[in-house]
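note to self: dont lose this again. the chain is below, predicted strucutre after it. 356 aa total, dont forget to put it in the shared folder this time
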Amino acid sequence: MSLERFLSQASSSWMSEDGPNSDIVLSTRIRLARNLNQYLFPTLFSPEEANMILEKVEGCIGDEAGEHGNLEFLKMSEMQPLQKRVLMEKHLVSPNLTDESGYGAVALSEKEDISIMVNEEDHIRIQCLFPGLQLHEALEKADDIDDWLESKLDFAFHEKNGYLTSCPTNVGTGMRASVMMHLPALIITQQMNRIIPAINQLGLVVRGIYGEGSEALGNIFQISNQITLGKSEEDIVEDLNGVVKQIIAQEQSAREALVKTSNIQLEDRVFRSLGVLENCRVIESKEAAKCLSDVRLGIDLGYIENISRNILNELMILTQPGFLQQYSGGPLHPDERDIRRAAFIRERLKLENRSS
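---
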């Protein structure tokens, strides 16, 4: 493996697999925050200490993750800004890891379903990704990797408070469980503004596609836990799982209502968006995300039969600014990106139609 291998493909191989409720739930993620004992946290450590941690973790990880296969250890200081952005757009690293500090790194599995970030907000952040709604399965894998690392490293742990982290909101389990959901019907029927406050009252948070502070492009939302202290990992996952299943039911109900009361208008919306994607010569990222969301809804409802749902997942990443420029061979002016984005979408949809 090499860095180029992770930059060349828009969709990770795990994304091509179907998971439970994959018409609404795009992915499940479990992230564990850990810090090394007797070292200052990344918010306070010196460059010397940061490099010591980097070397220590690299030596521990090597190129394998126990029974989970080989890992590629990549230092952020050896990447160009565009390359780091691509990894962020693929959700393999966080926005925090793409800054200019130069002390970060990431270890990635071949399927890109495992990502171990080093010197982000915490010394170590373990991330496991699964298609569809698979919170318990993702937690089991993350715990296995956590146990494997803890057998080699001394983590900062307090008997009463649990795992110690840079941000107080992560103290305890150090776990963030999140589910990425496609909720176009709840947006069209204007129910999402009512649902979000109700979710927040349950100790969960709703964010955009790239987490805190990001936009919900293409009607895609992240639902995750806020509480990490005083609850077990299993309880957090179970609570989130229950809420997500309720949101799935509401989205399904909203879709059924739209088909029943506004079928021709919904079908028209879907095929207008498909027409834009198949014929546009210039398209901005927000419009592309909106059209891709409409087309995916059309696929899920059976209006469109000759396009795979996975193609839409791929295009959601391929049309992001970083990947678009990486794929084109270098930086592009915003106007050039809009032209290139339209061309990529047209070409990809033509290839899909030929193969169907």
